Amino acid sequence: MAWRVLVPIKHSAAAKSRLLGATRSAADHAQLVHAMQLDTLDAVLALSTHPLLAGVAVVADELTVRLPVGIERLADPGGGLNAALSGAAAELAARYPDDGVAALVGDLPGLRSADLVAALAQAESCPRAFVRDLAGTGTTLLTAALGQRLAPAFGLDSARRHAESGAVELTANVSLRADVDSPEDLRAVLRLGAGLLTSQLQPQLAS
């Protein structure tokens, strides 16, 4: 089975408000959010020839960033992240009935392609599966195999809620678990090794 990776993209003006203190200005904040989103997508697109990757899509209400070639855009009808992911996953399942759907958060600028592949390979044997973030309470990846609803429950304590819904917890390396919600998270990912665009913004970050 191959996977359609689905990444939610939020307009930068409203995204990652807890990261506002990590930059010197609103413009720098927007640039940082864009960089993290694009570094995440680049890590996925690096797998474009891998047999486990069938395609990449984003769900977004509007875009202020130019998407890399090869990414499908699905409209966000509103209603929040889980509603957007549910609708987009159902649309992908209808269009591509032979592929599974994997929802990946868009704030993984340190993501290593090999770590994503390893998790997707594990998920092949599970109807639904998830990866817990480094904080232990959130979710960075949620998968649904053929014929399964994604049933996302992102938000507060999403890892617990995904486990309670029957999703199997996957073992994953740190780069797939290191989402960025705070300045401390960002510093940790920069130490880990972030993607090119995020790394280049270090001079613009608040000290």
Please outline the helices and strands.
Blueprint: E1 2-8, H1 26-45, E2 53-60, E3 71-75, H2 81-95, E4 99-104, H3 113-123, E5 128-132, E6 139-144, H4 158-164, E7 168-169, H5 174-177, H6 183-192, H7 196-200
Parallel strand pairs: 1-2, 1-4, 2-3, 5-7
Antiparallel strand pairs: 4-6, 5-6
Structural summary, described in words:
The protein is an alpha/beta fold. Strand 5 and strand 6 (139-144) form a beta hairpin. The protein has 7 helices and 7 strands; from the N terminus they run βαββαβαββαβααα. A 7-stranded mixed β-sheet has the order 3-2-1-4-6-5-7, with helices on both faces. The protein has one domain (2-202): Spore Coat Polysaccharide Biosynthesis Protein SpsA, Chain A.
CATH superfamily: Spore Coat Polysaccharide Biosynthesis Protein SpsA, Chain A
From the N-terminal CA to the C-terminal CA, the straight-line distance is 46 Å
Spatial order of strands in the largest sheet: 3-2-1-4-6-5-7
Order of helices and strands: EHEEHEHEEHEHHH
Poorly predicted spans: none
**Count the strands?**
7
CATH class: Alpha Beta
CA-based shape: globular
Separate helix tally:
7
Radius of gyration: 16 Å
Percentage of residues in helical conformation: 25-40%
What number is the mean pLDDT?
91
- Range of strand content: 15-25%
**Structural class designation:** alpha/beta
Short structural summary:
The chain is of the alpha/beta class and 207 residues long. Helices cover 35% and strands 19% of the residues.
Search tags:
207 residues; 35% helix; globular; alpha/beta; Spore Coat Polysaccharide Biosynthesis Protein SpsA, Chain A
